[in-house]
Amino acid sequence: MQTMNYESVEPADDAGHASLEPVLRTGETVDRTADLLKRKILEGSLVPGQRLISRDLVEELGISRGPLREAFRRLAADGLVDLIPNRGAVVRRLSVDEIAHIYQIREALEGYAARRAAQMIDVGDNRARFTEVLERGRRHFTQPDFQAFVVDNRQFHRIIVDMCGNPQLSELIDKYQLPVFMIQLRQRIGVDQIVRNALAEHEAIATGILAGDPDAAAEAMCRHLWHSADELVKLPELKLPGDAV
């Protein structure tokens, strides 16, 4: 049975006994902290190479070091930070080789997801949910907004995985998507054309899924991922020496 955790607050009564004040369960504090830091990384307010100073975060977030360390471990497991001896947590900066390796894994996982989504398109409300996300992304054809597109792009990929009805697959794909979306948020060169190219590739994937054609959906997804990888490795950020602190 799960019990409420308490922290001791130094003494509070005339008898010299320490009082106890209820606080968030440690697990809840870790969840909240990890989610907040993840959002800051994905929004770009914490940038690749930036060191996360424990002392500053403890004060800013009003938490103890234990939950913060566990939050760092979760972010490391998600591929968003590196835990470096004598430096602590640093927002991850992917190398060209790491990006290639991640996309090799994504091709296998998301190619399968697109194939499965095509097979599941008429199950339940899958077609309606998928069409809604697809239509939302189409607004960027005429009014490209890169920050909003990154959010819509992630939703497009996530709905495809969600239609598979496989929570383990969803968790695994999310792990390999997050570091890439983090980098995409930093992309600024040729934004409008990049958005339109991605949207055209989304349309090809959607055509296969909506037609219930697993082969066409999987092939279009793989083409899209490798084109995205090719664009990412050209980013100047990946060629900058040293770490920003």
TrEMBL record:
InterPro entries: GntR_C, TF_FadR/GntR_C, Tscrpt_reg_HTH_GntR, WH-like_DNA-bd_sf, WH_DNA-bd_sf
Entry keyword set: DNA-binding, Transcription, Transcription regulation
Ranges where the record places region Disordered: 1-24
Keyword Magnesium: no
Domain HTH gntR-type residue range list: 27-94
GO MF, any single term: DNA binding
Pfam families tied to this protein: FCD, GntR
Keyword Transmembrane on entry: no
Protein name: GntR family transcriptional regulator
Protein species of origin: Caballeronia choica
